[in-house]
Amino acid sequence: MRRLIIILSLLYGTLGLTAQTRFDYFYLEAEKCRLREDYSSAMDLYRHCLDLNPEAPQALYNMGVLHLYLRADSLGTDYIRRACERDALNPYYMETLAALYLNRRDAEHAIPVLEKMAALQSRRSDILSQLAQLYSTEGQTDKAIGVLNRIQLLEGPSPEVGIEKFRLYKEKGQLDSAFVELQTLCDDAPHDMNLRVLVGSQYMQAGDTAQALRIYDDVRRREPTNTSLQLATMDYLRDSGREAQFNRLRDSLLYHPETAAPLRVLLLKSFIADVQQDSTRAPQLTAAFDSLLARPQQDTDVLLMKAAWQAFSKAPQDSLMHTMRRVLDVDPGNETALRELLQYYAEREDGKGVEDISRRGLNYHPEEIAYAYYLGMALAEQKKLQDAADVLRQGLRVRTDDVHPRLVSNVFAVLGDIAYQQNRELEAFAAYDSALVYADDNIMCLNNYAYYLSLQEEQLDRAEEMSYRTIRQEPDNVTYLDTYAWILFKKQDYEHARTYMDKVVHPERTDAEILADEQLMGNLLEHAGDVYALCGMTDEALRFWKLAKQKDDGTCTPQLRKKIRQKKYIK
User: Fold this and answer.
1) Alpha-carbon span 24 to 21, nearest angstrom
2) What ranges in 399-521 are assigned the alpha helix state H?
3) How many whole angstroms separate alpha carbon 96 and alpha carbon 87?
4) pLDDT digit string (tens) for 53-97?
5) Number of other residues whose CB lies within 10 A of the CB of residue 335
6) In angstroms, rounded to a whole number, what is the distance separating the alpha carbons of residues 219 and 231?
7) Whole-angstrom Cα distance, residue 529 to residue 492?
8) SS3 of 240-282
């Protein structure tokens, strides 16, 4: 690239073009490369632009952006800072520089940049808000108040700005000015009862309880059911130690049929927080949930709050799942309940439960591939292989773009397993290849792919490599060890195969121990017998073949009885 730049420079120099024309040409070429995402070439061209004109702000800025993209943050920031110095009236450059400083929490350098931006774009209240926040955090209270005043001139009075000015005046010890701000807030919005309650709570926090209660009483006369007032009153009763009154007010709101759902949830959260501090009150909370849930439920708020409490208090899983089932009765598509129940049934290997919840999930959320995956698994367990494959393929077709690659990999892996069981080996291996594209360390896929390749006696070197990766990850997994030993067996490396087969089932274990071991399926014991047979150890081979027969779990080959009868390995 550098050589091409030199050649082009000589060519355009010979044609008598001006330095500015050459700069414009190379800058345009750099922009083309950047838009094509050829960042290496773009950087070389921008660098050449800076050789032609070291003060060019646009080249400095774009060099900075490229360095930031390449994670060279310090150098990138320096280029953008220099671009801002060369073009001090460009708000776009300054906005980028300010964002860099703000992301690093570098208030010392961010403040001067924001001050310049506020001078150039005096009507941008978002810049002023950032500046006020930085002034406040840096202890520059007067400057923060000045900027907040500018925001009020631009946008008019607002509770957020007024409360912040109140806080800053309090911080300075100027209490008269602080409470003037509160009074101004009330005067500007005389009919906003929520704002008046907010002002009352500020008086309460400042220790002026009498003024706060006067405001609360005024709001109560005008709007007795105001939610903010009720919550503020509860806070006052709690803080003043009037526990009985607090409980009465909370219960009257909690159980009132016309209490809005958001307020009821807030009250339950408060109740749960109390119980977390004092576990002796747990029975009262349980009674509250029982009472509330005895009524017909119009929404899931109380049920989900109960579920959250059950999870926190480590209630029995069956109880928690009963609550989740009730959530689905009210809201059949509730994703929280569907996910929790699906995980619950999957962990317990409850095929019927998994199928039920997966079907519900697919009905309401067909784009969520997890439901297709679990339903496909459940159907495959029932030997409904074609139905399972159809569900999985449909899940792949309608999945969202943000689905985790690991889940997509698992779906392809199950499709591979199904295709192999249907004697469609090429389709199975294609599905496994797709699975490994999405997650090349999908250990179950690696094991099954390797094992089926060995059964086909194809690509045995690749099968050995894949299988070895599985035992590196799980060196004690008897299934993975058996696969690796079997591949070595297929490669006629019998002694090496026996070394790994001994890790699956050691010959020194007693027959009773082997038969009692649920991990040792009949096919694993048959494999052990095959390996020993071709190592010339017939007695050991017969022992393992007979144990495999005693397992009687349907996993052995039809040749097993003939092997025992003829006392030799039969392919």
Assistant:
1) 5
2) 405-421, 425-438, 443-456, 460-473, 478-490, 494-504, 511-516
3) 13
4) 998 999 999 999 998 888 888 899 999 999 999 998 898 999 999
5) 12
6) 13
7) 15
8) CCCHHHHHHHHHHHHHCCCCCHHHHHHHHHHHHHHHHHCHHHH
Q: How far is CA 366 from CA 344, 382, 408, in A?
A: 21, 22, 15
Rounded to two decimals, the pTM is 0.64
* Long-range contacts of the stretch 447-452 (C-beta < 8 A, 24+): 447/479, 447/480, 447/483, 448/413, 448/416, 448/417, 448/420, 449/416, 450/483, 450/484, 450/487, 451/483, 451/486, 451/487, 452/420, 452/425, 452/428
The tens digit of pLDDT for each residue in 278-317 reads 888 888 888 888 888 888 888 898 899 999 899 888 889 9
Number of Cα atoms under 13 Å in the Cβ half of residue 99: 11
Q: Where are the domains of the chain?
A: 175-237
Q: Name which of 208, 260, 210 is nearest 231 in CA terms.
A: 260
Position of tokens 């920031």? 77
Place of tokens 């591949």: 487
- In 260-279, which positions are buried (b, 16+ CB within 10 angstroms) versus exposed (e)? eeebbebbbebbbebbeeee
Distances (CA, A) of 569 to 452, 535, 537: 20, 11, 11
Residue 13 has pLDDT above 50, yes or no: no
4/23 Cα distance (integer angstroms): 15
Question: Whose structure tokens read 């400057």?
Answer: 143
